[in-house]
């Protein structure tokens, strides 16, 4: 009998990038999305086989249908219904476009979608649309309101970089107003179009983590970080007793990503393939591929992440380590913490933004 939450045997989150097609051309897009669908995308039948394999991980496997924009696939509702019938918990991350009408939102809910995630990278029309390079704020807010009306739980995803960090308090207010159940705060990894954006400095990131813990305590919605697992280290060091229990997911350890053409990556932000679902079961790849096994072994980490006493509950962003050093087991350059007694090499400074830490952790302000 196996532990149902044993990340050596199953991912807590399995993302399938059903397409890279999207009407938007956001400046930070990991997928470098484009308007047209790739003719080599997994077909409907191949997708259904993937969903059957996902169900083999165990009852209630969480499957996220992402993109691009999943709505670009005509078979999206069919895939949601099929996955739901298999017992998978199906969620979807559509783009905020005019195609995401209230009727489409209701159809997704009726098909069995358990949660919908929308991206909000600014609190106003001007800031959100400027960051995304497209007019999507109004469509995103309308879709969020439609989700509330349909009784569909809503998650808001926000990218943290030099351009957006000062907007976080105002975005928090929007998350509250929209009735979201979870705010997923993603710290930029320089892949895809995101290579041209400036990340925050490690010190600024630490201050944002402190602030986010305060938000989590004060708000009705939950807060989680993406590609910033040292959020847990910050919580533990500040005596937040539940910090070590939250998430615990990093690339390849509780998380797997299947690309639109079937490549299995530890994360969409760590594009090193461990196999292809057209040739090998996603269950086999996740459990047995050397890359995934190495990423689940904290003893394989190098640099200050390898020496860190928090490596079992944090482990650093493997995606960011790969983007910066070409080695998914290297240190995460965004984390400023240096373990006591460590005198080895340190990663780079993590970005060109000057240290803008607020110092008191109350608001991620722009003051030095």
UniProtKB/TrEMBL annotation:
Keywords: 4Fe-4S, Iron, Iron-sulfur, Metal-binding, S-adenosyl-L-methionine. It comes from the Archaea. The keyword Iron-sulfur applies. InterPro entries: Aldolase_TIM, Elp3/MiaA/NifB-like_rSAM, PqqE-like, Radical_SAM_PqqE_MftC-like, rSAM, rSAM_sf. It comes from Halorubrum glutamatedens. Residues 8-218 form the Radical SAM core domain. GO terms for molecular function: 4 iron, 4 sulfur cluster binding; metal ion binding. This is Radical SAM protein. PROSITE patterns: RADICAL_SAM (PS51918). Its cofactor is [4Fe-4S] cluster. Pfam families: Radical_SAM. Residues 334-368 are annotated as: Disordered.
């Amino acid at each position: 009998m196996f532990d149902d939450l044993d990340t050596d045997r199953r991912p807590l989150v399995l993302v399938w990038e059903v397409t890279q097609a999207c009407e938007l051309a956001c400046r930070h897009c990991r997928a470098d999305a484009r308007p047209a669908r790739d003719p080599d995308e997994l077909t409907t039948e191949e997708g259904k086989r993937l969903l059957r394999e996902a169900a083999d991980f165990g009852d209630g496997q969480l499957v996220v249908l992402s993109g691009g924009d999943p709505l670009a696939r005509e078979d999206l509702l069919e895939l949601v219904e099929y996955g739901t019938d298999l017992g998978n918990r199906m969620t979807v991350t559509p783009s905020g476009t005019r195609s995401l009408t209230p009727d489409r939102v209701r159809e997704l809910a009726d098909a069995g979608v358990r949660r919908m995630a929308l991206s909000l990278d600014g609190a106003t029309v001007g800031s959100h649309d400027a960051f995304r390079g497209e007019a999507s704020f109004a469509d995103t807010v309308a879709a969020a309101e439609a989700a509330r009306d349909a009784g569909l739980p809503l998650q808001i995803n926000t990218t943290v970089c030099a351009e957006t960090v000062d907007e976080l308090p105002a975005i928090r207010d929007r998350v509250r107003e929209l009735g979201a159940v979870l705010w997923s705060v993603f710290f930029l990894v320089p892949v895809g179009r995101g290579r041209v954006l400036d990340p925050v400095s490690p010190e600024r990131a630490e201050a944002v983590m402190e602030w986010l813990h305060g938000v989590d305590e004060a708000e009705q919605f939950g807060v989680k970080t993406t590609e910033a697992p040292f959020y847990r280290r910050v919580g533990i060091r500040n005596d937040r007793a539940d910090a070590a229990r939250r998430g615990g997911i990093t690339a390849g350890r509780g998380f797997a990503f299947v690309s639109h053409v079937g490549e299995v990556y530890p994360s969409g932000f760590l594009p090193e393939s461990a196999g292809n679902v057209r040739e090998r079961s996603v269950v086999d790849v996740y459990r047995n591929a050397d890359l995934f096994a190495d990423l689940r072994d904290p003893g394989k980490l190098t640099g200050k992440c390898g020496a860190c006493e928090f490596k079992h509950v944090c482990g650093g962003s493997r995606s960011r380590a790969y983007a910066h050093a070409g080695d998914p087991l290297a240190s995460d350059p965004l984390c400023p913490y240096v373990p006591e007694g460590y005198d080895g090499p340190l990663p780079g400074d993590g970005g060109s933004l000057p240290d803008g830490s607020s110092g008191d952790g109350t608001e991620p302000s722009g003051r030095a």
